Amino acid sequence: MKEQVTDTELKKVIADFLEMGHADSIFEMFKREVRYYDWVGELLDDERFNVRLGISVLFEELKAHCPDDIHLAVASLCKALQESPVHVRGEAINVLGIIGTADAIECVRKGLLDDSPQVREVAKDVLEELE
Predict the structure, then answer these.
(1) Within a 10 A sphere around the Cβ of 108, how many other Cβ atoms?
(2) pTM recorded for the entire structure
(3) Does residue 84 contact residue 44 with C-beta atoms inside 8 Å?
(4) Alpha carbon of residue 44 to chain centroid
(5) Are the C-beta atoms of 108 and 123 separated by less than 8 Å?
(6) Is residue 43 a contact partner of residue 5, using CB atoms and an 8 Å limit?
(7) Which sign, positive or negative, has the C-alpha torsion 60, 78, 68, 34?
(8) Strand intervals (E) in 3-128
């Protein structure tokens, strides 16, 4: 009998693989299961820098190879802008900039009004890059 893996366990596996630099494996998972896009904001809320960096790398690849799906992460990332620590909000803005859709850019613009000067600066930089 096959044991089911819980979402919590799967999120930990995804984060661990990203920390080890295996964004390519996670890319394949995202290609096969679009519900993982809903987890991106939560995955960014990891104290390990390499996990957050891995998400940016992952989204660069997803944008290049799965451009029709990456917008699915926007809601999760916009939610992270409202509920997360400063470092997560900044990372969320970076990923929203990679996604680059109209709704993603709208969330980046909201970052210009963030309480944190670091988040405002990241939002400003991302918007300048998109121009």
Answers:
(1) 26
(2) 0.94
(3) yes
(4) 6
(5) yes
(6) no
(7) positive
(8) none
